[in-house]
Design a protein that fits this description.
Blueprint: E1 10-15, H1 21-33, E2 36-39, H2 41-44, H3 51-61, E3 64-69, H4 79-92, E4 101-106, E5 123-124, H5 133-140, H6 153-176, H7 184-206, H8 213-218, H9 231-236, E6 239-241, E7 245-248, E8 258-261, E9 270-271, E10 276-280, E11 283-289, E12 291-292, E13 297-298, E14 305-310, E15 318-324
Parallel strand pairs: 1-2, 1-3, 3-4, 4-5
Antiparallel strand pairs: 6-7, 7-11, 8-9, 8-14, 10-11, 12-13, 14-15
Length: 325
């Protein structure tokens, strides 16, 4: 798998009953947002496959088996109970290194712990969207979860680091793809790219985001003749245009951007006027002007550093870049 494809940290097998499929779909999305690959039979089985063979193989390939226990568990026997017995057998098999992890979850108020799982600690899901059950599940899988940073100077710096690393990653991909796949030079740049992806992953977790390298890769039209100083990178830069404006990528035309001085409070962020087109050095940009006060005094002051966001400065705002006057 290449550096531009998303990598999952863990694989889990989810054992459940069909009556709980709605819960499974929500859990699957929650797991994948945290880079955990979830195996569920209705997505992975193909027409004509031998179901009885696919399930044991998938369990053995997983790092952990999540067993969802609902009120239906005691009402009837079936494939679910066979999966539970197989999961217990996997957990007791000394040939697995590391040992197979079993995570039983009680997912409704009427669910009762199954006797065959009595030696395993069972977590209770009182509220799917709140509570500590999911954090504990991640801990059991050995995944370190950073506490998400609130909007702060530290958060700004992390976002700035992510954007810088993304640009480094793009340049590395461009250099890599100038060479034939599998050659010494290609492998060298691929190693560099993998290291950058790891750094972006780590920083993205700090702000509660998920980095998808494949999506970033798809944005780029690679041309072997392009130099590392591609037009895309040039146009992503923010150019200070004294005394009260900045030049940004033309995709922001007709929108408004927000800026905040480094170290300032989020509530003091200032909105630009509606962004218009502006040609500068034969390149078409968007021009964003910022004013403050009743007399239209310039908000941007000389000798300072500013962060630019698409959206008001909360955890949903997208970092555009920074500039220094």
């Amino acid at each position: 798998m290449s550096s531009h494809q998303e990598k999952y940290k863990k694989k889990v097998f989810i054992s459940f009953q069909n009556e709980n499929r709605d819960f499974v779909e929500k859990l699957e999305q929650k797991l994948r947002r945290n880079k955990i690959d979830a195996w569920v039979y209705y997505e992975e089985n193909l027409p004509g496959e031998l179901w009885g063979k696919k399930i044991p193989l998938s369990m053995m390939a997983a790092d952990a088996i999540i067993i969802l226990i609902s009120k239906f568990a005691s009402q009837r026997k079936g494939v679910f109970h066979d999966e539970v017995k197989l999961a217990i057998k996997c957990a007791a098999d000394p040939s697995f290194d590391p040992p197979k992890i079993i995570i039983p979850l009680l997912i409704d108020s009427e669910a009762k712990k199954m006797d065959v799982l009595r030696r395993f600690h069972v977590a209770k899901v009182d509220d799917f969207y709140h509570g500590l059950w999911f954090e504990k599940l991640l801990q059991r899988l050995g995944i370190v979860k950073f506490p998400e940073l609130e909007y702060s100077i530290e958060r700004q710096e992390v976002i700035e680091t992510i954007e810088r690393l993304k640009k480094e990653l793009i340049v590395t991909w461009i250099q890599r793809d100038k060479n034939e796949n599998g050659t010494r030079k290609w492998n060298r740049y691929e190693t560099f790219a993998l290291n950058i992806v790891k750094q972006i992953d780590m920083n993205s977790e700090k702000i509660g985001k998920r980095f998808q390298p494949e999506a970033l890769y798809k944005e780029i039209l690679f041309d072997p003749k392009k130099s590392a100083k591609s037009d895309r990178l040039k146009n992503e830069m923010i150019i200070y245009y004294p005394p009260n404006g900045i030049l940004v990528h033309k995709r922001y035309v007709d929108k408004r951007l927000f800026i905040i001085e480094k170290g300032d409070e989020p509530r003091n962020a200032k909105s630009s006027k509606r962004i218009g087109e502006y040609e500068y050095k034969d390149v078409m940009y968007g021009f964003a002007a910022f004013y403050a006060g009743p007399n239209n005094q310039p908000y941007i002051q000389p000798g300072r550093e500013y962060f630019v966001f698409d959206g008001f400065t909360n955890d949903q705002a997208l970092f555009v870049g920074k500039f220094t006057t």
